[in-house]
Amino acid sequence: MWSIALPGFGQLLNRRYIKGLTFIFLEFLININANVNTIIFYSFLGDIQAAIDKANYQWLLFYPCVYFFAMWDAYRDASGENKPLIFLPFVFSAYFMTVGVIYSPVLKIFDILPGPVFLPLLSIIPGVLVGHIIKSILERFWRKPSSMA
């Protein structure tokens, strides 16, 4: 849960200090270069066009992958179990959020331009769903049949 607040916090909690500090450094590097705080500010004020104009999309495209990889890594370390397909919801969330970032300056939903904050956030929902569905399907095929002794 700490990785949702800031990538790297989950790693620090799991005593993976170098990894945690690396994720925190990447978070700040991407945040500053992509103007994330500025686009959040303009988006919540309702000035979506200003948010689009201020966004540096070349840097903003890195954010979903770093964010979800840090969450998956912290979850994997904290759970202590080797769950082979648990990465799928994280991967698909990062993918769908990246697609949301790509289409955020042009895609209108019900004549509303969601912009570089709200469309990527909304894109996480289908990403999690698709990831869980694919994970469930693959788990059914990979289950070992019970032995009939």
UniProtKB/TrEMBL annotation:
Q: Which UniProt keywords apply?
A: Membrane, Transmembrane, Transmembrane helix
Instruction: State the superkingdom.
Output: Bacteria
Q: Where are the transmembrane segments?
A: 21-45, 57-75, 87-106, 118-138
Does this UniProt record's set of keywords contain Transmembrane? yes
Report the protein name in the record.
Uncharacterized protein
Give the species: Ornithinibacillus halophilus
